[in-house]
Design brief:
four-stranded antiparallel sheet; mainly beta; 3 helices
Length: 204
């Protein structure tokens, strides 16, 4: 029977000889600034020209693909001179910037919470959630008021889960809403309350 020491030595030898993750998975990097195409036009990929590490704009703190895999959303909650925040929406095949949303007020941290589904994207602001057409950037319906948190999960373009972790002195709760195609609004279906004080239920 192989001794424990021999087994450990064999395992260590295998680990040292095994290919690294970098060797198995090709790494692709892209520029964060505008690129000039052959026809003279400019396409911005992965962020605006002003983006830099020094700006602390937190670009890439939230990343999500839609279910079709052709739309990519990247949040930058620290973007802007007053930390208004922003979300950048890209064509996932060409990395071309399609549209973007920017916060309107100081420290609104737009882009801190983003969820893509099929054709829609939910974007959390400090006091509300907005639903957009992921391809065109058209705002769908009225913003959903949420004074207690902005964490969002969008499911199949039909269900929206809002985590309100600051509700009731940070006990928290989660709201589940369903999209009403006739009225074009999101109707509350059920609210799940947190059980523990300071538990911040709904931090999703």
């Amino acid at each position: 029977m192989m001794s424990t020491v021999a087994f450990l030595l064999l395992s260590l030898t295998w680990c040292l000889a095994a290919p690294t993750v970098d060797a198995l998975i090709p790494v692709r990097t892209v520029d964060a600034f505008p690129s000039i195409l052959d026809d003279g036009t400019t396409v911005t990929i992965f962020g605006p020209p002003s983006l830099s590490v020094e700006d602390e704009q937190e670009f890439g703190s939230v990343v999500d693909f839609n279910q079709n895999g052709d739309i990519l959303a990247i949040g930058a909650p620290g973007y802007g001179s007053a930390k208004q925040g922003s979300v950048f929406i890209y064509d996932a095949a060409s990395y071309q910037l399609l549209w973007s949303v920017m916060g309107d007020t100081v420290n609104e941290v737009v882009g801190g919470h983003v969820s893509l589904s099929i054709d829609k994207i939910a974007i959390g602001r400090r006091n509300s959630i907005e639903i957009y057409d992921a391809y065109t950037g058209e705002l769908i319906g009225e913003p959903i008021r949420s004074q207690q948190g902005t964490r969002v999960t969008l499911v199949n373009d039909e269900l929206l889960i809002i985590g309100e972790d600051r509700f009731n002195t940070r006990t928290g709760q989660a709201r589940i809403l369903s999209y009403n195609h006739e009225s074009g609004v999101w109707d509350d279906v059920i609210t799940v309350p947190g059980l523990f004080p300071q538990g911040r239920f709904g931090w999703i």
